[in-house]
Amino acid sequence: IQNNLNIEIAATIGILHDLATYKLNSSFDHANRSSLIASELLKKDELFSANEIDTIVTAIKNHSNKERIDDKYSELIK
């Protein structure tokens, strides 16, 4: 994987980044809404550390903002 990214974190971001679009059947503000849903799921499952959850949620929240350059995980999903 590029830039020494954690494959589990990257895959989780990829899987969850459009979650709100499918769960709520709407693309309105989907990046932000997906990040909130993902945060709840990830905290409940306890598969990732708090830092890893923050990384995942931040990337999901940022993925629709193509005009700004963010962290490496956010850029991966843009």
TrEMBL record:
Record-linked InterPro entries: HD_domain (IPR006674)
Source species of the chain: Mediterraneibacter gnavus (Ruminococcus gnavus)
SUPFAM superfamilies: HD-domain/PDEase-like
Protein name in the entry: HD domain-containing protein
Domain named HD: residues: 5-69
Superkingdom of origin organism: Bacteria
Pfam families for the chain: HD
Record Gene3D superfamilies: Hypothetical protein af1432
